[in-house]
User: What shape does this take?
Amino acid sequence: MTRSPAEITRGQAVAVVGAGLVGSGWAIVFARGGLPVKVFDAQAGVATSALRLIEEQLGVMHSAGLIDDPGSVLRNITVAATLDEAVDGAAYVQESVFERTDIKRNAMEELDRVCGSQTIIGSSSSGIPASQFASGLAIAPRVLIVHPVNPPYLVPVVELVPSPETAPEAIEFARELMESLGQSVVHVRKEIEGFVLNRLQGVLLREAWALVEDGVATCEDVDKTLRDGLGWRWSFMGPFETIDLNAPGGIRDYALRLGPLYHSIARSRDQTRAWSPELMDEVERQRREFLPLERLGERRAWRDRVLMNMAANRKKERT
Amino acid sequence: MTRSPAEITRGQAVAVVGAGLVGSGWAIVFARGGLPVKVFDAQAGVATSALRLIEEQLGVMHSAGLIDDPGSVLRNITVAATLDEAVDGAAYVQESVFERTDIKRNAMEELDRVCGSQTIIGSSSSGIPASQFASGLAIAPRVLIVHPVNPPYLVPVVELVPSPETAPEAIEFARELMESLGQSVVHVRKEIEGFVLNRLQGVLLREAWALVEDGVATCEDVDKTLRDGLGWRWSFMGPFETIDLNAPGGIRDYALRLGPLYHSIARSRDQTRAWSPELMDEVERQRREFLPLERLGERRAWRDRVLMNMAANRKKERT
Assistant: This one.
């Protein structure tokens, strides 16, 4: 039997600490799931501005058919004037402050002072493991990474990454809460730089940049390869299922046939070089031909519309 | 002004040589574009069986709203009894024989004997460059790789990979023909093992398998990371556009911020090891938990339905 978000938090609120783009996205996820959300940002006025952006975003989601009643979602969100007020009585805190180890550490030390002894704390960190900023604190057994993709109210995946100090109960709580909110939970079982998502993104980007550096393909041709082909299956099956279905005898059969090719490709690359300033210039030049800098904002709005369409169609399309 | 496929071939037919899964898919692409297609397979009965599968597939596409008149598409396709008959008067040959260098070489030597002096020849090779099997033949300037993703009538990307001997006119002809048929052309400018598509797939798979080997994630968790998150943007923007939109100042700004992380991830991997038999056992075991071998076929049918939905929705979704 699946429990509702409110059953999991036993009617308690959740706190969002840090009200930038990531924190605001989280507020929508929790509020849409029916939970009272208290939003706090240490910088004056940020949380209040976030609330306006959230209201706007809820309107767009409503137009796209993704939510029925934007007003009732918005009413679940309140701004807290202090960190104490935000976490008071909260079952869960989503920490979404700026991603730098010292800033995360400061936030965790403050949360250590104000949180109740039962509060679970998820950090939105996209690559820094929790042991680098929560270690040794009283709250450490209740801290883990809960890393979203932006925006989390459209793209469901979240990576849960416990530190060696994280208690199994905290992982279980975060998993159940996230699943009850409609997120798709990936359990990263060991701390590793970049976690799973950014490691996979990173290796593909490294090869893509190298192909451009070697004059094998343009940025646009690499993008076409994914958006008109390779990316399709990955967007509904993932890479393992893709290859499992791509050989008569399943994945071992596939690995025996194509493993040597991929091994040879891997060995052909020198991975020791950083991206050079000249390569960055070239990639920047190619992209600006397709999209002038002043149109980035407009294109981001397009991206978000497409993601909204995908979120709306996904269930239908995958059955 | 865009020319129609028939204008590009000047009313001449195209020949599909090799009537397996790949060749049959190509026959649909050409016939749907209004071109007369002659299908040949050296093995008796294969081309005739292919025609029955094509008819079935056209019916499914019709039900999905992808084509209006399956009968008229089917009537464009005929079976040729001999290679001579297939290529006689053909403007273009799509070679789709089994992917092994010696078999490709044999096919090219035969095509060299029977093709007219104007015929352009595209090979469906997914990783072997043309210079390894067409070099030194009279047809070599008219041979290039035209590598599809399966099935090409649903997934539009094709890689064009000229050899050093390929004439610019042959590349231009293939590009124009493919674009007129609705395919999305990626121009791979230098011969390289795996071309662009399989190199990108290969590096991501290598990291994915390594994460499973190290116990960081399960196959299913890696798949979730793509299909519920990372794969979404790539399926409509590609990796370069994705990161260009993911930093306030565009792609150089992104590279300055995240390049060091990806560089560090790359250096953390030893790429010299092949996939071990034990790792293949483990991956096979994990996949079979999700999908027993006897249900692979059923799941492939599901995949093709989803791809058909994607092909049908794509244009709408991306605007």
In short: The longest helix of chain A spans residues 296-317. Strands of chain A lie at 13-17, 37-40, 77-79, 90-95, 120-123, 143-148, 157-162, 184-187.
